[in-house]
Design goal:
Elements: E1 2-4, E2 17-21, H1 29-44, E3 48-55, H2 58-62, H3 73-82, E4 87-92, H4 95-98, H5 102-114, E5 118-122, H6 135-145, E6 149-152, E7 156-157, E8 160-161, H7 164-172, H8 176-183, E9 187-192, H9 199-204, E10 209-212, E11 223-231, E12 234-243, E13 254-259, E14 270-280, H10 288-308, H11 310-316
Amino acid sequence: MKIIWNYKEIIETLAYPCVTIGNFDGVHLGHNRLFERVVGKAKAHKGVSVVVTFDPHPLKVLRPGGIKLISTIEQKIESIRMAGIDFLVIIPFSREFAATSAKTFVDEVLVGAIGVKELVVGYDYGFGRGREGNIDFLKQQGVEKGFPVTVVEAHYEDEMLVSSTKIRELVTEGRMRDVERLLGRYYQIRGEVQRGRQRGGRVVGFPTANLQILEDDLCPKHGVYVTQVIYDGRCYGGVSNIGYNPTFGEGRLVAETHIFDFNADIYGKPLKINLLQHLRGEKKFSGPEELAEQIRKDIAIARNVLEEAHQELLISCSDE
């Protein structure tokens, strides 16, 4: 997949480009239906599939603090690449760009820069100043400028609407099995391992790898999770506590993960953590001994969960 970080940098003529547009936060199963349709249309015409998205997310610019994102731009790129897309056009989003009219966007970006031959959009898509670029507008533009518009209807899993909004809601409720159903994969947090107070191994007996969770991050429900840990291309089981560690009065929000059958110095190294199941809420214990006893119970449950999900984990555990 070729990544173009600004539509103004497109200098080549694309072969029968079939295009879809969206924010694609999380790249869930509904988004993948759009990508499948675009890829199929491109192959039918020996053309190329093109995804157009924005960075940062428009709501991050227009309503700072008003949205917590499911995925980083890096995760979004990875997921779109795995969908078999040929070109990913990432448009830098700013308040100035937000003032662009829908007609100007069609003329300059879709027709002028990309040369769209077919357009695929979701049932609720809208863009441009005041979201004036709705479905009816796009269909009319398609008639005038010679590109058919395909609208992909809403997608449901287990009677739940697959949407980024719904997934954010489920993440904050700790409903990770439902999140996996809508994403088509486990919800993942990632970052560099931070040097903490080193109480996990020295005081409690269970060393942890700590990832800091920032205020802008979509934070799952606080508590303990069964996790799958990906480090250096290999997968491990684990248990993670997300929260403030009330037993020791931790002042910052962190994800502390005890990795099973693992012993290596990974401070400063990148780590990916898939959240499989919420086990229990965060709790303040009387001291290290009581906490250690509860961790032993959590580990026993987590190992059973991981064993039952073994085949599924083999498929999902990828460094991609």
